[in-house]
Amino acid sequence: MDFGGPAFVIAIIALSTGGWLINNWIRAKHGYSLEDEWGGKTDRSDTAETQRLKAENKALHDKLDAMQDRMIVLEKIVTDRGYSLSAEIEALRDTPALGKERV
Question: What's the rounded Cα separation, in Å, for the pair 1 and 11?
Answer without folding.
Answer: 12
